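are you around this afternoon, could really use another pair of eyes. what follows is a protein written twice so to speak, once as letters and once as structure tokens for the fold. i want to understand how the tokens follow from the sequence so walk me through it. anything you notice is useful, everything is just below.
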Amino acid sequence: MNKKTKIILIIVLIIAFIALIILLLHPWKSNKSDGTEYYMSKKYNYWFEVDNGQATLIKYTGEEYHVKLPSSVYGVPVTKLGEYEVLNLSGAAKRGIFEDSNVSEVSIPEGVTEICNDAFYSSGLCEVNIPSSVRVVGTRAFAFCKYLRSVEFETGIKAISESMFSNCKNLRFIELPSSVEKIEGDAFAECALQKIDLPENIDTIESYAFRECDSLTFVTIPPKVTSINSGTFYSCDFLEKVNIHDEVKYIANDAFDRCDKLTICGIKGSYAEQYANEHNIPFEELDATIEFLNK
């Protein structure tokens, strides 16, 4: 091989190497079954979509256990943790970005406003911090995270969505931010909760929100709640006391089914006392002049 040929070969190898680097660093464009575009990136270990100058991370492709999510991809701000499509015998189905993954800790950047359905469903997640920019968290976002033990919220989120923390068998305590106004159905179903402080701004607790929380022993119903719905505390076997304000005017017949250790605490002459008497539940009078406390 003469000198000229060697030089040409070296130049070709250099060009090929540069092309490979560009290919790895630049996102690859592809299409979903519905025709919308998404991008795959080796640099960030994510698939992502871009719409109106905002990026949605839809699939994590890395193998790290501790993940720090980017606040932007290729200069585009990340505002949403989304879903991606998979094909099965029934057709196209959606899966959350970290669904069934081994990730154990995730740092979500300020600027993310939405966490979509099933985002961490059945993952190895142990702890997570939800920043104040997050306003919406989808259904089942953290459901079946059997190792999840620590969730930290900053003020921002308005609702604990349906089945959001259901079947989290290591989640023993959670402190909800003051911004929460609603707890949807099955939100904490079959959790290991021993204690939960419900913020005073909550005005709605939907059916079966705390069903089968076997370790829960004490709850104070927030003062803006006027009804306790069907199965809200169904089969909370060790629930001993529930403080109920006199603003509550309706309690479903099965709200406390299979809560055999329960004593209802409330104001004498209130609907809570009437309900307790009608359902053969022990009633303990609280002083109407003092504020209810979570103890």
